[in-house]
Write a structure and sequence with these properties.
Order of helices and strands: HHHHHHHH
Number of helices: 8
Oligomer: single chain
Number of domains: 1
Helix content: 40-55%
Radius of gyration: 14 Å
Length: about 150
């Protein structure tokens, strides 16, 4: 797990883009003006949250996937993108009904770390090359039902 792509994964939850409103954040992300230090785990979640609340689920998932892949490639860190982790977080966010991302963070911040995904996937499966490249369903328990479709 020494892979450079995991560096944001194990750090504490920090919303590096907090100074930007939602539209500014999306514009900065998609124009690749955000640096890697401005796009940490909480910012990945913010991207997914915003897409889920602006697009149907399938379109939101595609937007998040493509956006993170493009961001990672642009910044020379292709290992940042992990298909199963990205899809899992989008699906987990889609199972919540809080009214705002700020409310979601307030209610769930203590859960938003690697341990949450390990409730659904064994660490070895989640760290596998197969899971990095392709969606791999959970091997411990099913993900919650989506509320956002």
């Amino acid at each position: 797990m020494a892979d450079a792509g995991w560096h944001n994964w194990f750090m504490s939850l920090v919303l590096a883009s907090a100074k930007l409103n939602d539209d500014e954040f999306l514009a900065a992300f998609h124009s690749r003006r955000l640096t890697t230090s401005e796009f940490r785990h909480a910012d990945h979640l913010r991207l997914a949250w915003l897409r889920l609340h602006r697009e149907p689920f399938d379109a939101a998932l595609c937007s998040v996937r493509h956006g993170i892949q493009t961001f990672a490639s642009h910044h020379g860190v292709p290992g940042l993108y992990h298909e199963t982790i990205t899809t899992a977080w989008v699906r987990l966010l889609a199972s919540h009904d809080e009214n705002s991302f700020a409310e979601f963070l307030k209610d769930n911040e203590y859960r938003l770390n690697k341990n949450l995904l390990h409730r659904f996937w064994t660490p070895d499966l989640l760290a596998s090359e197969e899971a990095r490249k392709n969606w791999v369903p959970p091997d411990r328990q099913e993900l919650p039902v989506r509320l956002i479709s």
